[in-house]
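In line with agreed milestones, the collection of sequences with tokenised folds has grown. A representative record is reproduced below.
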Amino acid sequence: MTDTTAAKNHESPDAADNPGVAPAGAAADAAALAKEAADLKDRLLRTLADMENLRRRTEREVADARAYAISGFAEDLVGVVDNMNRALEVAADSKTVIDGPAKAIVEGVELTERELLKVLEKHGVKKFDPRGAKFDPNLHQALFEMPDPNVPSGTIAQVIQAGYMIGDRVLRPARVGVSKGGPKSPPPERAEPRSN
């Protein structure tokens, strides 16, 4: 007996009588193939979504890297600006009239400080002085509390060192003194419900 005759002997009688009807095993195979196709389509869609998320995340990381790449360098330069500011404060606080070469040095330090601040601003670094603002631990570093009955509690009464932002991030928080003992800050106003 050949293989073809053996195969014909094992066929179902329905398949032999009606060649258009598929055997029961073929229907199961078709269902399995349809399930496998659905699984593969699902995996493809998930992979495409993952790739799109990766592309967006990479774009965001590249943009952040461009915007904040100079953070370390800018933080070091902020210290230089502070030292220049301290030198100018000492010159202004001294009771001595500054003339001649000393006056030229002070003017040179002022010009250098202004130019350095312009360069920092050009690269997205901005100085902020929060005097009179409400204390925010995300932007300010409280060094001490000052009793002052005329100023609402939690208000910045003194700025020891100005803060700096790069983009929308804090490069260095402002170092401040916070008022204590004054009137409480008014709560936010709530809208009154209307009656009909």
Notes: DSSP finds five helices and six strands in the chain. The beta strands are 125-128, 140-147, 156-161, 163-166, 169-172, 174-180.
